[in-house]
C-alpha cells in the first residue's frame, strides 16, 4: 500500500436529503440511515486496514458527524481534525430549504437541472460548481496537498459538490465529465498518490468488491 493516501467520503444521508430539500450551507444533521452509512464507511476503512494522520471536514454538522462516526470505527477518535468552511457544500442560495420537486414545478425540470448540474451556472444567490471549486481547490493546494506530500494519510469528510471539485482536479476531468459524476452518501473513495502528489489509483467501495482504477 502506498504511503500517500487520500480518502474522500461524502457525508451520510442528512435529514434534508431525506426530505428532498436543497441544503447547501444549511445545517441539518444525519438521519438514522445517514448514521448507519457513516458507520459502514468507517467499517470499510477499518476493514481495509486504513489509518490516518489527519482529517479534514467542513463546518457543517452532517460532515462532522460522519467523520466522528468513522473515526470511532477506526479507533482514531483523537485524530487531529481541521474543519474549514472552504470544504462546505456549494451554497444553494435562494433554493436552500426548498423542496427539489416543488422547485421543478415552479421553474421547470430543465432549469432546475441546470442549477444542479451545470458547471458554471449558479442558482440565484448561490454558487455554481465552478465557484465552489474556486474556494475548494486553493484550500486543497495550500492546506491538504502539503500534508500529502510529506507522506501523511488524509481523510476528508465533506459534501457532494465540494468533493466533486476535488475529484475534478485530482483526475484532471473536464466540466462535462464531472457534472455527471454522482457521489453516493457514505461511500469511501480512496486515492493513492505518488511522491509528487499525482494520483496513481482510485478505489471505489460502492460494490461488494472494491474496484481499483489505475489513474497514472
Ligand atoms: O445541498 C444539497 O441539497 C445536496 O446535498 C446536494 O445537492 P445536489 O444533489 O443538487 O448536488
UniProtKB/TrEMBL annotation:
- Key words, A-Z: Gluconeogenesis, Glycolysis, Isomerase
Where's the active site on this chain? 11 (tele-phosphohistidine intermediate), 89 (proton donor/acceptor)
Q: Which residues bind substrate?
A: 10-17, 23-24, 62, 89-92, 100, 116-117, 160-161
One GO term (biological process): glycolytic process
Q: Known Gene3D superfamilies for this protein?
A: Phosphoglycerate mutase-like (3.40.50.1240)
A Pfam family cross-referenced in the UniProt record is His_Phos_1
Instruction: List the InterPro entries.
Output: His_Pase_superF_clade-1, His_PPase_superfam, PG/BPGM_mutase_AS, Phosphogly_mut1
Q: Which domain of life is it from?
A: Bacteria
EC number(s) of the enzyme? Answer: 5.4.2.11
Query: Which residues does the UniProt site feature Transition state stabilizer point to?
Result: 159
Recorded GO terms, molecular function? phosphoglycerate mutase activity
Q: In which pathway does it act?
A: Carbohydrate degradation; glycolysis; pyruvate from D-glyceraldehyde 3-phosphate: step 3/5
Subunit and interaction comment: Homodimer.
Regarding protein family, the annotation reads: Belongs to the phosphoglycerate mutase family. BPG-dependent PGAM subfamily.
What is the recorded name of this protein? 2,3-bisphosphoglycerate-dependent phosphoglycerate mutase
Give the source species: Acuticoccus mangrovi
Q: What is the lineage of its organism?
A: Bacteria, Pseudomonadati, Pseudomonadota, Alphaproteobacteria, Hyphomicrobiales
